[in-house]
Amino acid sequence: MSVSFPVADHYGLNRILLVKLSSLGDIVHALPLLEALRAGLGKQAHIAWAIRGKFAELLEGNPFLDAVYSLEDSSPESILRFGKTLRNQRFDVTLDTQGLLVSGFITRLSGAPLRIGMDANREGNAFFLTHPVVGAKQRIHMVDKLMGFCNAVGIPPLPVAPQIYLVEGEKRTASALLADAKRKGPVIGCIVGASTPEKTYPATQWVEVARQLANQGAQVVLLGGTKEAEAAAEITAQSKGAITVNLVGKTPVRTLASTLALCDIIVGGDSGPTHLAVSVGTPVVGLYGVTDPVRTGPQWGSAISLVLDYAEKDAPPETRRPRHSSLTDALSRIPSKAVSDAAMELLRRASVEKAS
Description:
Elements: E1 15-19, H1 24-41, E2 46-52, E3 67-71, H2 76-87, E4 93-96, H3 101-109, E5 114-118, E6 131-134, H4 142-146, H5 148-153, H6 164-168, H7 171-184, E7 187-191, H8 203-215, E8 219-223, H9 229-238, E9 243-246, H10 253-262, E10 265-269, H11 272-279, E11 284-288, H12 293-296, E12 305-309, H13 336-355
Parallel strand pairs: 1-2, 1-4, 2-3, 4-5, 5-6, 7-8, 7-10, 8-9, 10-11, 11-12
Helix pairs in contact: 1-11, 2-3, 7-10, 8-9, 8-13
């Protein structure tokens, strides 16, 4: 379905609900859309966000939001109660930026007369929409796809800027965590985990990366969630002093955001923390091979970035599907020296850019 005019022309745009329930990376990718909505619709518009409770912390203090509604669990009872809460807010338009069954159901339950979503949706999502018109089939970055919602409501997209509110929240705590590293030299944060094993760089190769970076004067900081704690401990032990500090499992999401912002360079695979680093304006080296970097790479941010992809021959990026990886060894194909060289090259470029 397509339209030649903004579908919101015939509706009020006073009260808007954005639905993006999860996950960390997906929510981060939607933040530029929120900023564009506020800029285009003005201060008088009431903009709210529907999100899963475990991710609501990400939106605390966002200057472009008026309200946040948290879904605590996926039980039918919770969803119905959640829908009733949303319906009582009398939204004019709901934007389903997720394109899945639950997000579509919540979009419908919101009661908004105008329900806009994407034209490439799954799990019967289109059934709940009045206008599945936002282009999602083309091979472009997810952030650019989401900006298509701007066209649907008749406002211009904005250039992506760092999400400063994420940086400020735990800046003092992050500064203390990195104090020793920052005193000694440039800080390179390594995000050691990802949502699936296929998207995770091997621990043995992280050890080599850490040694190579440390030999060049870089301060290596390990970052990630609690499920990567065992791998991070192994990397730290085997690297024999190359790791300046291991923060894996020690930084809640807002502390992580502030910590990422204080690093000079971040290295990581296609993961939520890597996307979070992009959103706060830190240069990123992206490690790819399972997913398509054109669609989910780090190039969407305001800072410079590099992508390493050594699986292009056997798994052309445009054919990749993240939930059905064709190469289980895709990331292990990236040599450790290529990773450390890319990090140091990006550090050099960032230094030149900062000096100019």
